[in-house]
Write a structure and sequence with these properties.
Largest sheet of chain A: 6 strands, mixed
Helix content of chain B: over 70%
Order of helices and strands of chain A: EEEHEEHEHHHEHEHEEH
Largest interface: A-B, 30 and 23 residues
Radius of gyration of chain A: 22 Å
Strand order of the largest sheet of chain A: 6-7-8-3-9-10
Strand content of chain B: under 5%
Order of helices and strands of chain B: HHHHHHHHH
CATH architecture of chain B: Orthogonal Bundle
Number of helices of chain B: 9
CATH superfamily of chain B: MetI-like
Shape of chain B: elongated
Structural class of chain B: mainly alpha
CATH topology of chain B: MetI-like fold
Largest sheet of chain B: none
Oligomer: heterodimer
Number of helices of chain A: 8
Structural class of chain A: alpha/beta
Chain lengths: 285, 224
């Protein structure tokens, strides 16, 4: 084994996954993908719908078992674990979903407590404290006794984040977490995720088809097309040459955002000048 | 005109007790055995967590076939056909305890099917979220499936209770007793219309009560 410090937190080694179609053929969702995620980074998996990005994400916590290849978490091969060991290891991999997937017949607090009660060794007191802490972290301390049906979409996703963070995971896997939310709520949620990454040091892998999300949140992006990893790059790197259509699109968005920011700055400057001219004219009159 | 009723009043009390006993045993067996059987049917069905195990498809088909076969028997045929089994289990083939045997026998697959249907209503994503958090099979059943489907399960039990209230009347054939038996023996065979009217009225009231209670509990439990 290599030096543990240089070992990435997540390492996918040539993973493949195919599904049986109703007509008997097989659909190759992920084809021989190797990908590393370093501790503390935010990686975006982008691609069109059906590209295999969600399947790739679900291979990380073995919600899908790879047909071939290995999945390593902090140097440990998850595919070789016994079921009980895998269940324990999954506490290190929090996950949130597009449809939130909260228990409807449980309060926000009960939902957050759910992963803590699955595994032995935590007292009632510890669980209650941790639940309160996590709900406060996502700004929902006052909604502890509400059921999901009484919460807005954004609030539900926050409860889901609190639930995922409760067992203090190293990684947060996000499967299209903002696709069911409006633009404003999406922005708020991305701020929360960025905060979770910065303050708690939780590594984030996020699947999305919204390039704006990648641009706002991710440091690195990996483009998936037809089940293959086509390219990966640092999002802020202006010098890179994109190869895939999505990569090009993202680069264009990045330039747009940069020029928009410049435009806004110069507009603010212009209006300041105009205002000062106006004041001068008033004085002259 | 009402002397029939006055004469019968003590019998009505006994009959109510017998109906209650048959229902309690039948429903108890349904929950105790039919519930787990329904969960198993659900978990073994294609795409669910146990379906990947070796032999799962075969077992699923087998349980399905047994459930369908038992459910296709007209209850009165089942009642008669099961007499030897009833003798072994209850020690006798007459009386409410004996009648409870075929009632349970019919209730178990009936409830299993209802449970299976209820569990299908639980969104797949919620089950996956629990798996992703490291929940075991048992934890998923008890803490996710039952919890999320609980309102539907109570509604299913209500449907079962009402169907078996009328099934229990048929049990009069083996001397099972109960309110329905009273309606047949006095109201029908002896043309005592007042008895018929009273017993049917009691049955109507019972059904209303069961339905009302079931619905209330289900609504209470449902936070969706």
């Amino acid at each position: 084994m290599s030096d543990p410090r240089s070992e990435p937190l997540i390492r996918l080694d040539g993973v493949s996954k195919s599904f049986a179609l109703p007509d008997g053929r097989r659909f190759e969702a992920v084809r021989d993908v190797s990908l590393s995620v370093r501790a503390g980074e935010i990686l975006g998996l982008i691609g069109r719908s059906g590209a295999g990005k969600s399947t790739l994400l679900r291979l990380i916590n073995l919600l899908e078992r790879p047909d071939a290849g290995r999945v390593h978490l902090a140097g440990r091969d998850l595919t070789a674990l016994k079921p009980a060991e895998l269940r324990r290891e999954r506490q290190r991999l929090g996950m949130i979903f597009q449809q939130f997937n909260l228990l409807q017949n449980a309060t926000a607090a009960e939902n957050v407590a759910f992963p803590l009660r699955l595994h032995a060794g935590r007292s009632r007191r510890e669980i209650a404290d941790r639940v309160a802490e996590c709900l406060a972290l996502v700004g929902l301390a006052d909604k502890a006794d509400h059921h999901p049906a009484q919460l807005s979409g954004g609030q539900k996703q926050r409860v889901a984040i609190a639930r995922a963070l409760a067992p203090q995971p190293d990684v947060l896997l996000c499967d299209e977490p903002t696709s069911a939310l409006d633009a404003g709520t999406t922005r708020e949620l991305l701020t929360t995720l960025a905060d979770v990454n910065a303050r708690l040091g939780v590594t984030i892998v996020i699947v999305t088809h919204e390039l704006e999300v990648v641009q706002a949140l991710c440091r690195r992006a990996a483009v998936i097309a037809d089940g293959r990893l086509v390219e990966q790059f640092e999002v802020a790197d202006a010098t890179r040459l994109a190869r895939s259509p999505l990569g090009l699109e993202l680069a264009r968005l990045q330039r747009q955002a940069a020029s928009l920011a410049a435009l806004e700055a110069s507009a603010a400057e212009t209006s300041a000048v105009i205002a000062s001219i106006g004041r001068r004219e008033v004085r002259h009159a | 005109m009402l002397e029939n009723l006055v004469e019968l009043l003590p019998e009505i009390g006994v009959a109510l007790g017998q109906t209650g006993l048959m229902l309690a045993i039948g429903l108890g067996a349904a929950v105790l055995f039919g519930g787990p059987l329904g969960v198993l049917l659900f978990l073994l069905s294609p795409g669910q967590s146990l379906s990947a195990l070796r032999g799962a498809a075969l077992l699923h088909r087998l349980i399905n076939a047994v459930v369908n076969t038992v459910r296709s028997f007209p209850f009165i045929i089942l009642l008669v056909a099961l007499v030897p089994v009833t003798r072994v289990i209850a020690g006798t083939s007459i009386g409410p305890l004996a009648a409870a045997v075929p009632l349970s026998f019919a209730a178990i697959p009936y409830f299993a099917r209802l449970v299976e249907q209820c569990l299908r209503e639980v969104p797949r994503g919620v089950i996956e979220a629990a798996q992703a958090m490291g929940a075991s099979e048992t934890q998923i059943v008890l803490r996710v499936l039952v919890r999320e489907a609980r309102a539907g399960l109570v509604a299913a039990l209500t449907v079962l209770a009402i169907s078996f209230l009328s099934y229990s009347a048929v049990a009069g054939v083996v001397g099972g007793g109960g309110i329905g038996d009273l309606a047949i023996r006095y109201g029908y065979y002896r043309f005592q219309t007042d008895v018929m009217v009273l017993t049917v009225a009691i049955l109507v009231a019972l059904v209303q009560l069961i339905q009302f209670t079931g619905q209330r509990v289900a609504r209470r439990l449902d936070k969706r």
